[in-house]
Write a structure and sequence with these properties.
Layout lengths: L13 H10 L1 E5 L2 E7 L8 E7 L7 H23 L6 E7 L7 H18 L3
Parallel strand pairs: 3-4
Antiparallel strand pairs: 1-2, 2-4
Helix pairs in contact: 2-3
């Protein structure tokens, strides 16, 4: 599997995002949180992913955009670890929820741990 983040994997649907916030389940590894819900969408991809960084913790758009880029890159590099456990299609929202300014290496490590935790939380 390639390590890309193509356009059809990006979560853009307002309905699905609302569904994530109302019915989604959550897995966390400080300061990251992954909210997920099983979905049925037309595209031939195993999952759709969106990222979010709170304006509450990072007032400047430059800082929020930096952490969103880091989250997308961590997802892209560890996507195979995440999709290995999937037996149906899922929609995800990936959050950075702290004012702590972690380095890229720390975020990458936390992302791997979070994806492992997600894999263990799935029904077999």
């Amino acid at each position: 599997m390639d390590n890309s983040y193509p356009k059809d994997e990006k979560l853009k649907s307002k309905k699905i995002i609302d569904l994530l916030f109302t019915e989604g389940k959550s897995v966390g590894k400080y300061p990251l949180r992954l909210v997920y819900v099983p979905c049925d969408f037309e595209e031939d991809v195993p999952l759709k992913m969106g990222v979010s960084v709170s304006k509450k913790y990072f007032k400047k758009a430059v800082d929020r955009n930096y952490y969103k880029r880091v989250l997308r890159e961590c997802y892209r590099l560890n996507k195979t670890q995440l999709t290995a456990h999937l037996n149906q299609k899922y929609c995800f929202m990936f959050f950075y929820q702290s004012a702590d300014r972690l380095t890229y290496e720390e975020i990458a490590t936390k992302t791997q741990q979070l994806f492992e935790k997600f894999g263990k939380s799935l029904p077999q």
